[in-house]
Amino acid sequence: MMSSGAGKAPQPPGPGSGSLNGTAADLPNIEQELYDYQMHGKMCKKIAQLTKVIYSLNTKNEEQEAALQAVSHAHQEELRQVTTGTCTEGEESAVLRTRLSELQETLAQVQVEFESYRVQAEERDRGVEAELRRDYEEKLQALGLERQETQAQLNTAHDESLRLGRELETAGEAAQCLEVQCDELRRKGEEERGKGKEEETERMRLLSEEVKTLRKGKERAEEERERAGREEREKWERERAEREEREEWERERAVREEREKWETRVKEVTEEKEELKRSMEEARREERRQWEEREEEEKRGMSTVLRERVRKAEGELEDSLKRLNESKRHAAKLQDRIQDLEEELESGRRRVSGAEGGAKRAWEELVVAKERLLLQEEELQSKSEELLSRGVCEGCVCVNVEELKGQVNKLQSRNRELEIQSSGRNNDYARQHAEALASLRSEMVRAQSEELRRERKHAEVEKEQMQKEREEERDRLQKEREEERDRLQKEREEERERLQKEIEEVKGRVMEGNTERVEEQRESLNQEKKRLKEQADEERRRLKEQADEERRRLKEQADEERRRLKEQVKKAIEEVMRKHAAELHNAQEALRTNQEVCVRVQEDRRSGEEVCRRLETEREELRDQLQQATNQIWRLEGVIQQQSQGGVASETPPTCGIHCSHLREDLQHIQEEMERQRESYQKEMTGLRTDKQRLEEKVLELNQQTQENTDRNVLEHNQENTDRNVLEHNQENTDRNVLEHNQENTDRNVLEHNQENTDRNVLEHNQENTDERIRSECEERLRAELKAELDAAVATSNQREQELQTQLADLQSQVERKAGPAEGHHDDSEIDRLRREVQETRDMNQRLREQLQEEPQRHSEERHTAALQALERRAQEELQTERNRLHTLHLLQLDKQGTELSQQYTEWSRQLTQRHMKHIEDLQTELHTHTEMMALQQDLKQQNQYQVFERQLDESRCAVLELQRENTVLRYTHTHTDRHTHTHTPHLIPFLSSLLFLSTLPRYASSTLLYSSSLLFLSTLPGRERRRWEEKESRRRERRKPND
């Protein structure tokens, strides 16, 4: 715009300017004065240099402002950190105090519980001593009763031996009676049978052999009785010694196992104590870490919330201050503009008065007015652009810009019209020019007045609105501060004195400009302290409630666990009793089955003996029949010889002799065969007897083994189950009372032990079942073999008897056919007599055999029943003693475990209290040192920060004073620009060009450049004008000093 104005200025005025010779002649001189290109170049160079210097100064100023802002932010952050640190220390101290109080309460409670538990332990020890004394007395009584019972058993055994002796005497007397009877029978037989001496001798021989066998059986029975008595006595003594040794060994083994178990238990308890310590330490560290993390999170959250609030409040304050400053700057600009417009009006009046004075200066005034209008247009455009760039009252600025543009267009059109009129009408130029200037002056005055009025209204409205907003913001902030002060006042009562001292020290070191900020920080700290105190109280109450709930829950769990353990012990005792009863029942059933087996074996033996007796009788009968048959044959031979001598027909004797010879041969064959059968039968009977004895021995061994196995299994199983159940229940009780977190392991162990017990019981039961099944199968197989052998022997004997009977019947029929009818009656009577005798002897022998067999069988049965009764009594007594012993062991183990648990609990509580007290002391020392170090660090930081802030405030004050001074210079230069346009136009052009350049720069750069350009402009002024300006500036500065 300047170059266009400069190019248009030297143009000729037009074709109608010939009449104005004077003005046209003066124009070259004016242009020469106005446009001194050399001077213009120098000024431009100086301006360029000044702009560079100003730009460097502006960059330095920006850097300083950025450093100031960074320092202020750092100061605020450090203040926030200090406040948060003090808050955290207060919270930590409060938490530690609460923790100390809780630990003291727990210590007191533990001491009370320890005292109560000690009293209970003493009472329990007295009860245990009394129970042990009672158990010892009961054991002594039981031993006395056992001794009496053994004495009674010895007496009964002695009585039984006496009874057996009497029975043997009776048996001897019976044998003597049998001998007497045999003698009588022998005499009768001698009297009756004179011819059957050989038979009678043989029979007597047999009877004597039987008597000898009876005597031998008697002697053997006596020997067996004595041996049985000795064996019974030895066996009883051996069993007693073994039982004593077994009891002593079991007692030693139980003591040894008990010692080993208690040693392992002590090791386990020590390990569990160490594990408990480690777990408690880990839990304490974990709890502390979680508590610290939770506190850090809460602090972080609270610090972020407070930081956001403070940042928001600061942002709002900064915005309000910016708006206030902008409004102030706008008002100052409006005032400057009003002054400029007033000065322009005065200059316009002077120019109009100068123009009315003469026609010669019309063209010069028109040119000057044109240039002024151009400058105003540029100035208005720059101002409009500046207003648009700042964005304040955009609507008003747009309206003003449009109006100013319209006015500029009107002025330009009016200027052209004036030029045309001046070129066309030289005579009316002065009048028209005067009218135009008057109308222009009136329009400019009206427009400027309207604009000023409008801008004043707008400024007042904005000022009122800003004031209202500021007051509302101040009220809102005040309300918020009061609310926060009321809410946080309760939390900062304990640290108020310390913070008051710190605030006083800070007040002494901080400048007056930071007092409000310190007060706000103090209030915020008080509020934060109160809030944290309330939070600490709430946390304390919550922790106390949680501790009470946890204590109640643990107590309930302990009661429930105690009840459950009692139920489990009761169930275990009932289960053990049931198992003992079941095992006793099984033992009784096994004894019953053994008795049944023995009875069956005895029945089989009796049946075999009966078969043997029947076979012997049949053999005797067959022998008698053979003897009778031989006698008849010999008698028939004698009869046949008599008949042959008497002269019977010649054909009968040889046939009879031949037949007799055949009969003799058949008899010999029959006798030989009978001898062979007898030998084979004897061999079979001896084999059967040996097999029977072997089977009886096997059955007795199996019975003894089964009895011993059942007794041993019952005792071992009962001992193991009771010990295991007692130990398991004690282990479970101790582990559950001491360590709750090992519940799963103990349950798993219990399940495993129960599974092992059940598996062992199942295996033992299966083993017993398999043994019993094998024994029954063996017995059945042996019984079947014996029965089969006996049946085969009986069948063969029956078959042979039938064959012999058939042969005898054939022989008798032949003899009867051959014998005469005369001797039939005699032979029949003799045969009948012989048969009767044989039958009598057979019956007598049968009775004797039955008596001889029944007597040892009865004795054996009586001995067997007595032994079974003694075994049953002994088993019952051993079972009862075992139950008493297990019950006493269980009680002793429970008492021992209770005492050990009480000792462990007291030791653990003592160690725990010592650790807690030591930890509390360490925490107190650490807290004291930490608070001292934090106080020293805070003092040092605050001192450094306040020194830095003081230096920064001094520098900022110096910078503000410099800026104020520059602002005053710029105002003065702006007010005197129009005043010196006529006299100093050569000096104005570079100054105006610098102003146009400064309009494009930022605000802080334009202020410094304006100051430098104003100094440059003063250097170009004449001496008188410069002195006048300096005097005005000094007077203005003196007026403003009191205000500053």
UniProtKB/TrEMBL annotation:
It comes from Oncorhynchus mykiss. This is Family with sequence similarity 184 member B. Residues 188-213, 219-254, 709-723 have a biased composition (Basic and acidic residues). Keywords: Coiled coil. Residues 1-25, 188-254, 270-307, 448-562, 702-723 are annotated as: Disordered. Residues 783-881 form a coiled coil.
